[in-house]
């Protein structure tokens, strides 16, 4: 233990000396726009990243996909050691609305201890942290105690549309013991966190077509079909009034939480008042356990939009000709969006109504969950604790959706996410930023994780 | 009989000469928007109507109400003769959605033998027909054989909210033997009709407020309330999946149809194919008796609009902060809208949901029904037959709503409706129209009715 503390001090000293370089490296990356949704600068950014990774001593190449390329790198140990696969993305969100930025989104600007710029938090700052950590360790030791691989994609902000087939086609190259992602914000100010999965997503739209035009609700009332009512009648066959989904086999594949997971959830920090305020509710009455079960371990059946007929001021007495509802379901591990979609399709086909109902598939992502008790997972959690000198909050899954299933489902390896960005990083929004302290801590955390997995710390 | 045929020919000849003027009169009225729900142009339209009625030789004045004024006119016979009270409304529905109109809704446009424009059918074309008929008869004879009175309101499309108190306060002025309304479409192509009542109306809006802002459906899914789902859950307690209303006492006051009425209904013409086409449905499977029972003698529970969250293209992953639904119920005689509203209020107050639900009363009109066997009713039916040279279809009640209860309930006189507009007038919808032939026939029918009630034809 004493020896490992000495190693840790050595690493801190080294990183301290390279602060300027670490800042400048991120600045360089931010100055190169890479907006996948707008096809702006993405390939140039891939080239820049390759150069920076090669400069760091990483064996790097560009690998094609059907869309923007993957930047792949590796530093392999001569012996057959443990392998960590670092995942990140070098594309960024569009910067619009530009008028809300306090500085140029592509000219990194320091203000109040934070670096502002598009991509600082999501995901360039967190991605380059891994690269710079490896560079520093190679400088310090001449080698790494484990194998590291880097998978940096250029289409995450477009929904990682080509990631799954790429991974299918490169299983051997990407073989690893764990996937490690730094993305998203930490759980609170100075509160490190580790998440072991994500909910999946199935997004559908149901449309009901009644008569081919709106009809007078008096002259045709009780005669023309009402598509809004038909959709409501369909929805009442899909979900009961307690929110329980009635689609065949919907709950079949959901992992039952282990006693250990439930015990763990009960220990998680939960401030109902602060949470209610963030959401915009008057109050929140549920206990921590129920909160985390609902958010991390249970699926949703959410109406994201419902539109039919006249919704302006006052009255309009019509029978609308059509109605549509958008429903997004967050899926708990191991629900399968394709299977559920098929069952919904069947359900809708068996539903009788005067209106003609159509079902559209608007998107699907599988959920992902990695068991908490795995040794390698516990090791990373410990490394985060060492680097921050504070116990991280460990969440079984994020409420939101990410592409982590590509690791757990396709590569069949554990996957975890260690956010390096501050809680107010404003990703996807104007004035995106990363705290300088958080950014530098991120580099240190990757160093500690590599050394701890390599049993050097 | 021969003499009356000569009179009829005289009238036809006179009307034939004035076609151009009759068209131009309607055009003038259409060009003046009068959208009571949007407070647009209503007073200007009242002024225009007064001028046109005075020009027609009618003693006309504006009478105030708590809302938009009544335009009242009269042509009284020196002797104490029978009095007909013509009712109509000079306000129109909002023209939206504008993009579906093939021509400017407020610039009357002739196409395929029809005049297109907001209000052509509902109700400016049918209202001005009475005025122009009286003008022609006065031109022709210098006087009328009976008393006529005109009651034209400006708030029918808002539910005639100030009509009942107005009539309460002007019982003497409005005293008459029968109320005569031309509104709504005829029963079929070239098929005149007379209706002896109307369904009533109760129009409500339910709003559900969840969090004070939209939330991310992943990070907050299952935690923030979903107001759209809460409204759907409320609606499922208000109406079952067969359309039967579950509000307390909803069906209690409905008149049981007499054997005579049911026998009459069975003789009514019904062309399911043509009806389906008018409505814009592929087919219609119900028999005549059921059709008329549903349309004339039964209430509705219609969703006129439902709005919540994102309804544009593609996906947006939000939990909406609010939802609203507009529901209009057509009421069968003798349902009471006020009583039903009270019961809905109680129902909503007893409904539990995470969202805050509010109920707004947007309008209510009592239903009305006049017995078919009355002499004066039979006389008007005969006048319609003479004008069209065809037996009219006589309906016990219209599916739609008019304020006819003010005549039957407050003035205690029989009330009937003789629609002048074509069956495909598309009232309340884009491309509202009135057939030129139907419009001119309408003017003729008012002439014949006045002469027949005055025993001149």
Automatic annotation (TrEMBL), chains A, B:
Pfam families: M20_dimer, Peptidase_M20. Gene3D superfamilies: 3.30.70.360, Zn peptidases. It comes from the Bacteria. GO terms for biological process: proteolysis. Keywords: Hydrolase, Metal-binding, Protease. One of its GO terms (molecular function) is metal ion binding. InterPro entries: Cyt/Met_Dipeptidase, Peptidase_M20, Peptidase_M20_dimer. Residues 197-351 form the Peptidase M20 dimerisation domain. NCBIfam families: PRK06446.1, PRK09104.1. This is Acetylornithine deacetylase/Succinyl-diaminopimelate desuccinylase.
């Amino acid at each position: 233990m004493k020896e490992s503390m000495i190693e840790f001090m050595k690493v801190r000293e080294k990183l301290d000396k390279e602060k300027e370089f670490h800042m400048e490296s991120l600045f360089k990356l931010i100055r190169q726009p890479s907006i996948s949704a707008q096809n702006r600068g993405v390939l140039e950014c891939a080239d820049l990243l390759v150069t920076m990774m090669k400069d760091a001593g990483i064996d790097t190449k560009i690998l094609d996909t059907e869309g923007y390329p993957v930047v792949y790198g590796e530093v392999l140990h001569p012996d057959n050691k443990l392998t960590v696969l670092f995942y990140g993305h070098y594309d960024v969100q569009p910067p619009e609305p530009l008028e809300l930025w306090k500085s140029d989104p592509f000219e990194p600007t320091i203000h109040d201890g934070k670096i502002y710029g598009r991509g600082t938090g999501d995901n360039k700052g967190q991605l380059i942290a891994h690269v710079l950590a490896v560079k520093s360790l190679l400088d310090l030791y001449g080698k790494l105690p484990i194998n590291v691989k880097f998978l940096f994609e250029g289409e995450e902000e477009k929904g990682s549309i080509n990631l799954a087939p790429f991974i299918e086609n490169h299983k051997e190259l990407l073989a690893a013991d764990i996937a490690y992602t730094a993305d998203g914000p930490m759980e609170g100010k100075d509160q490190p966190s580790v998440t072991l999965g994500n909910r999946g997503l199935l997004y559908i739209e149901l449309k009901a077509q009644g008569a081919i035009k709106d009809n007078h609700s008096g002259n045709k009332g009780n005669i023309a079909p009402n598509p809004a009512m038909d959709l409501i009648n369909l929805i009442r066959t899909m979900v009961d009034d307690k929110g329980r989904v009635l689609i065949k086999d919907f709950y079949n594949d959901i992992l039952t939480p282990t006693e250990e997971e439930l015990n763990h959830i009960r220990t998680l920090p939960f401030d109902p008042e602060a949470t209610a305020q963030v959401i915009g509710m008057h109050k929140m009455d549920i206990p921590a356990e129920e909160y985390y079960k609902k958010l991390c371990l249970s699926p949703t059946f959410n109406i994201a939009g419902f539109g039919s007929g006249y919704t302006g001021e006052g009255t309009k007495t019509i029978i609308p000709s059509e109605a549509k509802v958008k429903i997004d379901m967050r899926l708990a591990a191991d629900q399968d969006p394709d299977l559920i979609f098929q069952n919904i399709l069947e359900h809708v086909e068996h539903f009788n109504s005067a209106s003609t109902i159509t079902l559209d598939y608007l998107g699907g992502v599988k959920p992902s969950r990695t068991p908490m008790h795995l040794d390698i997972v516990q090791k990373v959690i410990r490394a985060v604790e060492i680097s921050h000198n504070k116990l991280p909050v460990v969440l079984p899954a994020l409420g939101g959706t990410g592409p982590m299933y590509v690791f757990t489902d396709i590569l069949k390896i554990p996957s975890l996410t260690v956010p390096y960005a501050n809680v107010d990083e404003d990703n996807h929004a104007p004035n995106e930023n990363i705290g300088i302290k958080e950014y530098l801590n991120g580099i240190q955390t990757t160093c500690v994780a590599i050394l701890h997995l390599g049993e050097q710390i």
